[in-house]
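User: Hey, my collaborator sent me this sequence without any context and asked if I could get a structure. I don't really work with proteins. Can you help?
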Amino acid sequence: MFVNRMPRYDILSEEALATLDRGWQRLHTEIGVEFMKPEALDLFRAAGQKVVDNTVFLDPEFVLEQVAKAPREFDMQARNHDHDVHIGGSHMVFSSNYGSPFVRRGDSRGDGTLDDFTNFCKLAQSFDAMDSVGGVVVEPNDAPLDSRHLDMVSRALIYTDKIIMGNVVSARNALDTIAMGEMVFGSRASIEEKPFCISLVNCNSPLRWDDRMLDAQFEYTKANQPVIMTPFLLMGAMSPVTIPAALVQQIAEALSGIVLSQLIRPGAPVVFGSFLSNIDMQSGSPQFGTPESAIGLLCTGQIARRFGLPFRTGGGLNSSQVPDAQAGYESLMTMLPTFLAGANFVMHAAGWLEGGLVASYEKYVIDMQILEMLEREFTPLEIDEDSMAFGAHEEVGHGGHFLGAMHTMERFRTCFYRPFLSSSDNFERWTRNGALDTAARAGVIAQKRIDEYEMPPMDPALREELEAFVARRRAELGD
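Assistant: No problem. I've predicted the 3D structure and written it out in structure-token form, which is a compact way to encode the shape of the chain:
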């Protein structure tokens, strides 16, 4: 878990923020938000909000009152408490790729498998900068559809000892996730006191929350597990093309979902979610790592802080088909503003390729390199008498060099960050070593990490209990 102590890059004026406020309030009062779950409508109706069919028209003052009940910051527990995390404030928590049906390794692109999912668990465990393997890092298409959530959640708990993301396909899947958390952490009371999983609840933008997402939200919120209420906005498709209009819609959608969480369980932990980019207006395809998405990301951080909410955004997003230069620069175009905005929970931090369709082994390692370097870049500079190194000048004198100076000899091992992926060899040495480009070197590192992976300790009785639960539930689901 990284603590970002650098100043935030706020780009919106007070006048601009006030204009956005008027915008989301108008959407809430004049257009409304659809909630496709009767229990949600009942809660809004009981709270005095206008409900017409499935549409809720929200009073802005009521919205702000409910949002104020959500905690500004909260803690989460991991199986290894050295990996517990804090969500909010200056803390940044990083999670792997999410939701890809396909996987790429080298020149091979195909369906994701359960072995691939397990390998990404191993990679997440092996990198200190990664705080969570996440949820559906890659779809295990060789596992039965109705029960694959059991495989993913149990393997995330067994093969990593970090926080996890819950499954949100249905209420039943959420309840299975919660049940496994109760086994690992001892009781329902234990996970309610300190959550163990965080879950992604996506809005069907524009302005509709679907029943399955809401079903999962209800179960996780009742169990006091945080949910990330995330509008899914690709400007030009799911929102208007202008950034201000997309921001207004994002606020309206996110706040409406957050209000529902507070009606389900006042004080429940939530995260203001953002997934904001644009489409290619020529082809209609999603684009990532664009200037517009970066601007929207910076604005989102400022907006979430205005509401006193932790927020999720960013990641190593890109549209490239392979882990090439495009993948690298588009991902950095997203990750750099992620740090500048001080995002609290970062999904898709490693492995995302091809607009999210693909989880890539090589890209995972490349993203981890970017992440580690940004963490170093966003560590405040210490300036004191020792770092001024006046004595080194006295030792070296005019026209000398500092390579052998005592100040250098005392610090040469740690004075500069050494990238684990980059090559600084001269051409001849690089050629002798196989002339490997960045993607090829990343592939070697990924395989080495997997080969050298050590499973974190787990009580054998607990593992047997988890595996027995998975087997029983699989049978009950007919798989």
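In plain terms: The longest helix spans residues 243-264. You can pass these tokens on to your collaborator as they are.
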